Every structure is written in C-alpha cells, then in structure tokens.
Amino acid sequence: MKCDHCDKPAVVHEVVIKNGTTSEVHLCAEHAAQKGYQVPTAPVTQLLAQFAGQIPAVQVSARREPIAAARCPGCGLPFADFRQTGLLGCPACYDAFMPQIGAVIERAQAGAVHHVGRSPQRLEGMADRVALRKRLMQELETAIAAEQYERAARLRDQLQGLGDVGGKA
Amino acid sequence: MRLSEESAAVQVGPEADVVVSSRIRLARNVAGFPFVGRCSDTQRNEVITLVARAPLGQNFGAGLTWVNMAQTSPQERQLMVERHLISRHFADSTVARTVGVDAEESLSVMVNEEDHLRIQTIMPGFRLPDAFERARAFDQALESAVDFAFSSRWGYLTACPTNVGCGVRVGVMLHLPGLRYTGEMERVKRAAKDMHLAMRGFYGEGSEAVGNFYQVSNQLTLGFSEDELLRRFTEETVPQLIDYERSARRMLADTNRALLEDKVHRAVATLRAARLLGAEEATKLLANLRLGICLQLISDVSMELVQRLLLQVQPAHLARIDPGATDEDKGRVARATLVRRALRS
Predict the structure, then answer these.
(1) A156 touches chain B (CB under 8 A)
(2) Helix (H/G/I), strand (E/B), else coil: B226
(3) Nearest-CA distance from A52 to chain B in Å?
(4) Inter-chain CB pairs, A–B, below 8 Å
(5) Chain A closest CA to B26's CA: distance in Å?
(6) A121 contact residues in B (CB cutoff 8 A)
(7) Chain B nearest C-alpha distance from A153 (Å)
(8) Do the Cβ atoms of B34 and A75 come within 8 Å?
(9) Where are the domains of chain A?
(10) Residue A155 burial (CB < 10 Å; 0-12/13-18/19+)?
(11) Residues B338/B322, Cβ–Cβ less than 8 Å
(12) Which of A91, A118, B13, B317 has the fewest CB neighbours in a 10 Å radius?
C-alpha cells in the first residue's frame, strides 16, 4: 500500500468514522509526521499513555506492518516489486506475502476477506465450503464480542451470501 | 481481421435513451503458470494455445476468430479499442497476446492482458443478464478444458490482488446529459463512490466523459456472489441511475426548455453544416443529437444512425472508411463530409 501523497510505502493507516461515513488515510513516515501523526516507533505502553486523555472524536489506529517474505518461493517475485507495481507474480504470492496482501485486499474490498459465490466446477460442493462457513461464524462471534459491529455486519452478509451456494455446516 | 458492420457497438437495445450498452468482464488465470507479467514468452504462448484450442461446444457455433496481436497494425488495434473489443493496455502491450472475437462481436477474449484471460461480453442497451449469461457460458465451457487459479479463501486469483473474488466486473455505458446539464453530476459521482462504483469516461480508466457518456462498474469483487452482484446492478443500481437521468431531463424540459433545445438544435445545425470536425467535437455534437432524438425534438434522424456515426467518427474507423484521411487535418475534412452526407437525407 502506497502513501496517499507519494510513492513511498505507507506505515500509518487510519480509518476515520465520522457522522456514519468511513474514510481511509494511508501515509508514509514522512507525510505522517508532517500531518502530526504519531509514527509508532515508541513502545505500545508509551503510545497508549500518550493517547490517554486526548482521544479525539474519531477512532485512530496506527501500526507498523509486519514483514512478509522478501521473495515469493513460487516465482521469485521480490516483495519490493509488488510494492512498486501492485501486481503479483503467481498464485503462490498470495500465501508468500501474507499478511500484507490480506490487508491490501481487505482495504480495497471494503472489509471483505472471504470469497463467496461460484467456485470452479471441479471444486463445487467440496468440504472447504463448509470449513469457510465455520471460519466465518467464528470470526462473527469474535467481532460481536469485540463490539466491532460494522465488521460483524459484513461477516453476516457474507454468511448469508454463502447460504445459497451450499455448504451448510 | 474482418470487423462486422453490424457489431454490438452500433445497435440499439432496451432503455437506449440512457443505457448505451451493457458489459460483463471476467478475470481468470490459468493454474500452473505464473501471472502474465512473470511468464516467459514461451509460457505466454502455451497459455494462448491452451485457450484457443479448448473445445467450446455448440453454444459458440463456429467458435471465435483468434487474432495474434503481433500481426496487427497500430490502426487495426486502434479499431478494436474504438469498438471496445480490447483495452488500451492490451493494444499497447508488447508481450505475446491474442484476442478471440465471435461473429457478432458481442464476446471478446483477451489472452495475456493483465490476467491470462479477460472474457468480455457487450450487448446493446440494458441487457446485463444476457451479457452475463453469455460470459458465464464461455467461462464454464473453457473451465471444462482449462484449470483456473483459485483459492477457497480469495476466490479466483488475479495478478492485481484487488481484483480477487468472483473476478466479475458488471458495467454499463450510460448517456447522462440531463444530470450534467442540471449540475447534478458531482453529487451522483460522490454517491457512486460511496457505493463503491467506478465512474469512468468513454474509453475506461483515465479517459474523459466526452459527450456525457459514462461507464459505471463495480469496484468490489469479494464477499458476495456474482449472482448477487448482477442482481444489485440489474434491480437497483442501473434502474436508479436511469430514473435520476430521466427526472433530470424532465426537469430541464420543464424549467429550462430553451437550454435543452438550444443544445440539440445547435448540435444538429453544426453537424449538418461543418466543413471541419475533430473526433471529440463530433462525439459531443452527436451525443446532443442523440439526446434530441430521445426527447423527440428530432424526428428525421434514427438512433441507429447516430450510434453508427458515433463509431465512424473515431479516428481508426474514419481512416477505414476514407483512406485519404491520412493526417489530422484531412481527417477533420473527411469526418465533416461523412457526417454531413449521412444527415442530409
């Protein structure tokens, strides 16, 4: 994910929920500092202390991304190349570059993290649809427990969508 | 390649006053190969062979005509871009690539675009379910011969990770002069953004909405089924946009009829009299003539003729009709002559 203002990788990701509308901000260290964001180089406890008492009306989260594999073992694509072009080299890149790829997809797809719908005929009705349903149910429970209602609503929609493609667990 | 004179691009379909055409695009990659950008030319050619030789069954009649892009001239490629059979990216690419087109030019299959396969169907007017069925039929026919890259978590895997999931883009080309002239377009664009819809110009990404033609398509491809996506577009998104546009046109007709009539009649007068016409100017004027026909302000020109002219005034089509139109100046003369003659009778 690139910075909103330049081509450098974004290290600060902010989701702003204001008056019911959601928007996203992605900034590199330099632009984040310019705009007055705290780039999280300090320990979490210290950061939390800084935030305490000055949490604004919007929800702010800032984190450094964990590091994915430097290269895809399947096709040899360096992760840096993906950063630059936005294109993956082969199907194996999806696993090799987790969790970054997952985050990119989640952001681009408005929070969706699982395929719902047709599968190739050779896979239709296979047990993994059942497993997917189970996993979504677990994630839904976690989201509700954590009071992440927007995420819970999306998971519920995905579960409903899954209902008509079989795989009832 | 021989291009049909009756291609889907010049026909008129249901709800044609607002919906010019309906389009479905599927992104697929062949399992066992790197994505296009990481393939060697040998691998890209293997993918081409696999796809072009796959038996398609009776649904596809005589099958597709496959065109090796390396053997086409820039003008032929431009012709296919103007007909929306291939993307600009595909036309300009230099890797081994081919496109398959059916006789009606309603189905085109780009092999080695950003993904191994971009399957696209276009139908005139508001016919998304028909376009979708044809794309799905081709997808399934091909799937029985070729394995697609797929993961149970992410769905159909694509070179750009933001296209994963069902890999389906549902799109319509809309003519929205009413919303533009009433100043409502910015509001519609904002609403579209909130609904995760892309609104682009005449030739897709980065192009301008010349003539107030807009392509509207989904940005999200993950988290719902392709049937649900199609249903939303067919039952909600597009009918809503059609309603907005028609109300805007009604409002203009009630409150500012002179403006509306001026736009239409000025366009017709210019088209019938001009001696020099650029492609963009001709598109804008023909779009206003199109609006005039929809509003029944113009009765002696058919919608079919306007659709045909909208295609024929584009540079590569013009050069095919009038080989003398070798540069821009000659093209402007040839374009004005073509339009004048067509609108004379």
Answers:
(1) no
(2) helix
(3) 32
(4) 126
(5) 12
(6) 140, 143-144
(7) 12
(8) yes
(9) 1-39, 67-108, 121-162
(10) buried
(11) yes
(12) B13
| Structure-token pair, residue A4 | 């909103």
Q: Tell me the per-residue pLDDT of B24-47, one tens digit each, with 9 for 90 and over.
A: 999 999 999 999 999 999 999 999
Q: Does A160 touch chain B (CB under 8 A)?
A: no
Q: Which residues in chain A have their CB less than 8 angstroms from residue B160's CB?
A: 86-88
Cβ of residue A155 closer than 8 Å to a chain B Cβ: no
3-state secondary structure of B162: helix
Token duo for residue B118: 């971009």
pLDDT score of A18: 60
Question: Cα separation of B48 and B97, whole Å?
Answer: 7
Question: Would you tell me how many other CB atoms lie within 10 Å of the CB of residue B230?
Answer: 21
Look up the pTM and report it.
Answer: 0.78
Does residue A80 contact residue A88 with C-beta atoms inside 8 Å? no
Maximal CA-CA distance, chain A: 56
| pLDDT tens for each residue of chain A, 169 residues long | 677 888 777 777 776 666 556 677 787 777 777 776 655 444 444 434 444 444 343 444 444 555 677 899 999 999 999 999 999 999 999 999 998 999 999 999 999 989 988 888 776 655 566 667 777 888 888 888 888 888 888 888 777 766 544 333 3
State the Cα–Cα distance between residues B92 and B65, nearest whole angstrom: 21
Eight-class DSSP state of A30 = H
Q: What's the burial of B218, exposed, middle or buried (CB within 10 Å: 0-12/13-18/19+)?
A: buried
Is the ipTM higher than 0.90? The answer is no
Q: Which residues of A80-90 are buried (b: 16+ CB within 10 A; e: fewer)?
A: ebbeeeebbbb
Cβ–Cβ gap B223/A154 under 8 Å: yes
- The alpha carbon of residue A32 is apart from the nearest alpha carbon of chain B, in Å, by 24
Q: Which residues pair with B68 in a beta bridge?
A: B98
> Which H/E stretch holds residue A34?
helix A29-34
